[in-house]
Amino acid sequence: MIKVNAPYIGEEEIEAVSQVLRDGYLAYGPKAREFEERFAEYLNVKYVKTLSNGTVALYALLKALGIGPGDEVIVPDFSFIATASAVALTGGRPVFADIDLDTYTLSLEEIENKVSRRTKALIVVHLYGHPADMDPIMRLAEENGLLVIEDCAQSHGATYKGVKVGGIGTGSAFSFYATKNLTMGEGGAVATNSEEVANYVELLRNHGQERRYWHISLGWNFRITNIQGAIGLSQLGKLDRMNERRREIAKIYNELLESVDNHLKTPIEKPWAKHVYHQYTIWVNDESLRDELSRYLSMRGIQTGIHYPHPLHEQPALRGFAVKGACCPNAFNASKHVLSLPMHPGLSDEDVIHVAENVIRFFKDARL
Ligand SMILES: Cc1ncc(COP(=O)(O)O)c(C=O)c1O
Q1: Which of 101, 116, 209, 362 is the most buried (most CB within 10 A)?
Q2: Are 191 and 263 in the same domain?
Q3: Distance CA 320, CA 308 (A)
Q4: Residue 364 in contact with residue 264, Cβ under 8 Å?
C-alpha cells in the first residue's frame, strides 16, 4: 500500500529517543527547550512555546490575545475543524469566510465581507503547505484593527515573499502531529514576537505556575515531553531536506498529470510562494468521478485522502455558528472536488510515477 501521508523517521530519531530514555529525563526538559530555541531561530521569531498539540496551540494563542465571549474571529470555511473549534472553545464566535480556489486559503474579499464591529481577529490557514497572500491581508487587518493568527499546522518551512510563515502575523500555531511536515508524534507550538503572548502561553501550559508550587493563574498541563522534544529536534535538522523532497515529488506529479489536464487541476504555486506540499491535492473537474478515482486507486494499493469532505459550517459541532443563507460556495465546491494523492518524503520516484500512471489510466479507462 502506498500511503497518502506518513512520518519520515530515521535512525536519528530512534537514537535521539533512546538517548532520552537512557538519560531518564522524560517530562518537559532540556530537549524540549532546545527545540523551542532552534525552531524560533528557524522561523526567525523571538519566542516558541511548545504545547501538547496544534489544537491547544491555537486555543492558547487565542486566549493569550484576549479572545473570549462576544468576540468574532474570521476563519476559513475550508480547513481542519480545530481552526474553528479552538475559537469556539474560548467562548468566541468563529465566522466562516470563503476561500480563494487558486490557493485554498482565505479570500481577501471574504474577509472584507465578514468584518463586523465585533471582529477581533482572523485566522489564516496556509492550507496544504501553500501560504496565503499575507501582504493584503495584513494591510486589511491593520485598517480594521484586527489581530492576525497564522494556522501553520500544514506549512512548516513554507515562505511568503522569502519570509517563513509563522512569523508574519501577531502569532502563529503549529502542529507536530504524526503526518505533519515536522512531527513529534503529537505536539504543537505557538510562535510569536510578543513577550506578553509568550508569557501567557507559558503560564497556561503549566498550571499558571510562576515559580515552583506558586500559581498566579489557572492553567492546564499542556506540556510536551522531552521525548517529543528529541524527536522534534531530529526532524528540524532535516526539515528543509524533507520539504525539498516533497517539492521534487510535486514536480514529478505536475509533469506527468499534465497529460490529463482536461480532467483535473494540479496544485498551483504562486510566484510569491514556496509551497511545502503538506498535501498534494488535485481538483477533479467532474465531481462525480472524484470518489470513483479514489476507489480505483485504492483497489490498486494507492491510498488517497479528502481534505476535507465538508465545509466547516456544515459540521454538526459548529452549526450553531453557521449563518443562515448561502455560505462559502468555493469551500462547498472544494469539498466535492479535491483529492489528495500520496505525498511524503519516503516515496520513491517509482512510487510517484506509479500513482500518476494510475490516475492517468483511470481517466483513459473511463473513456471520457
Ligand atoms: C489546519 C490545521 N489546524 C489545526 C490542526 C490541529 O493540530 P493537532 O492535530 O496537532 O491538534 C491541524 C491538524 O490536523 C490542521 O491541519
Answers
A1: 362
A2: no
A3: 20
A4: no
